[in-house]
Amino acid sequence: MKIFGFIPARMKARRFPGKPLKKILGKPMIEHVFKRSSQFRNWSDLRIATCDKEIVNFCNSKKIPVVMTSTKHKRCLDRVHEAASKNKNKIKDDDLVICIQGDEPMLTGAMIKNLILPFKKSKKIKSTILAMEIINKEQLNNPNIVKIVHDIKGRVLYSSRSPMPYFSNFVKGRKPRRIFGIYAFKWNYLKHFNKLKPSPLEIMESCDTNRICDNGEEMFIAKQKYSSSFAVDTPEDLKKVEKFMRKELKK
């Protein structure tokens, strides 16, 4: 089984335009994401997928592998599907295609390793999502953080920007979980996923993995313990990430 990674990135993000090239500690965010993704050593191929010439030009200047995609995609997984399709002579149906969102500059190689473990335990699994613990009520209530509800076997039931499951009093031990923006698909299942129309829950929540549960299909969580790792949705998030990265450098 080969493993192919794609980092979708675009300049016209609604909440934070131009964020892939915004700098953190002097380097564009997309460079941090690529370098951190490279900590995982088992890639058959890893590249950025974008529809923007600015990002392509930057990648070329840094010799970062990049593939140009359509400007029509609204969801990251559709962009990844196109990018992977351009490698169709290399990717086999049972190979893994991993989507690493371009606004996760604090990911680690260990997280990617964790994401693919369920595939090694069961040949029936077709897709996984990294599900990180939520440790406080602020995270649970933050609409920029997508929460995951799953069953006792780890199958995703629903993902939402609303606080869920409901807590009258937040209790850490109950371990609600959130999406950490890394997803893995068997290539044949990602091709099937791409043929499904964007679903009502996907559109309402702006969360493309809801296309799976909305169609009665299965995606499984890969459990991830909490760590100080934050996605960048706003300029304020960028400052938070820079603050924590400075702390990392001092250790």
Record keyword descriptors for this entry.
251 residues, alpha/beta, Spore Coat Polysaccharide Biosynthesis Protein SpsA, Chain A, 9-stranded mixed beta sheet, two-stranded antiparallel ribbon, 9 helices, 22% strand, globular
Element layout with pairings:
Blueprint (H helix, E strand, L loop, with lengths): L2 E7 L13 E2 L2 E2 H9 L7 E6 L2 H10 L3 E3 L7 H10 L10 E5 L8 H13 L5 E7 L3 H5 L5 E4 L5 E5 L16 E10 H9 L4 H6 L4 H5 L5 E5 L10 H16 L1
Parallel strand pairs: 1-4, 1-6, 4-5, 7-11
Antiparallel strand pairs: 2-3, 6-10, 7-10, 8-9, 8-10
What does this structure look like?
The chain has 251 residues and is an alpha/beta fold. The chain has a single domain (3-250), classed as Spore Coat Polysaccharide Biosynthesis Protein SpsA, Chain A, CATH 3.90.550.10. The protein is built from nine helices and eleven strands. It has helices at 29-37, 53-62, 76-85, 109-121, 137-141, 187-195, 200-205, 210-214, 235-250, and strands at 3-9, 23-24, 27-28, 45-50, 66-68, 96-100, 127-133, 147-150, 156-160, 177-186, 220-224. α3 (76-85) packs across α6. The longest helix is centred in the last third of the chain and has 16 residues, at 235-250.
